Prior knowledge:
two-stranded parallel sheet, 40% helix, Rossmann fold
Amino acid sequence: xxxxxxxxxxxxxxxxxxxxxxxxxxxxxxxxxxxxxxxxxxxxxxxxxxxxxxxxxxxxxxxxxxxxxxxxxxxxxxxxxxxxxxxxxxxxxxxxxxxxxxxxxxxxxxxxxxxxxxxxxxxxxxxxxxxxxxxxxxxxxxxxxxxxxxxxxxxxxxxxxxxxxxxxxxxxxxxxxxxxxxxxxxxxxxxxxxxxxxxxxxxxxxxxxxxxxxxxxxxxxxxxxxxxxxxxxxxxxxxxxxxxxxxxxxxxxxxxxxxxxxxxxxxxxxxxxxxxxxxxxxxxxxxxxxxxxxxxxxxxxxxxxxxxxxxxxxxxxxxxxxx
Length: 323
């Protein structure tokens, strides 16, 4: 298959590329503005050529083309979507704090960005479109979160991801594009050196000898999913038949408090001679207290479920950061 991956230089994009390269027979076109992921990150996953958006050469098996550009540019979106089989849309303004700090930027990246990519898919007759969403559209609800819950986003980030899910649904129903929205849990694992979410951030700070801060009392819960499990879900979402227009919770169906996470992370770091110094601060605006998922729909329709236990995943992640 010929895959167009937006944000493909980032943690998720490079992880998906590595797995597809192992499988063989795939080629890639990457759109990334390099604000987070880098050329060096992509080079660790695959050999690539950097191209201008105009007159892109046809992809051969195993090829990877990098186009440096922004999903907010509709002209770039139209040009790079020619002759592609599927789009994986990772590029986004990520995280609740960023959206609270600059709601307009969050909207422009996450709403205008996905609209541009869906329009490009429509005009270039691309049939499969995989959208990286989040649990954030659900908002402050009684978990487990499932796909039929009425959404009530708390943060601008949740609202922008909900808008993306809405556009995916409409482009399936109106234009026949097989859109698939994946609501990811909190992703962690090897390769997450640029990630600002709790596992990667706390490991980085511990390695630097800096104190880490938990916002609130640590009783807030999340559903932590290991990168290999998430990659499996993304590839299935891009290839399984008869799932157009659907949304899936992609997580572990396990509720973990931040304090429980620290009880795993602290000894994993201590075994390597690294101390984790924790302090507690004020709760952040836009954060929800409880968040974990019911993943039964993904198991039934995608044939997918998470396999990696949190203890094992944390150990592998700590070992990777120490390489």
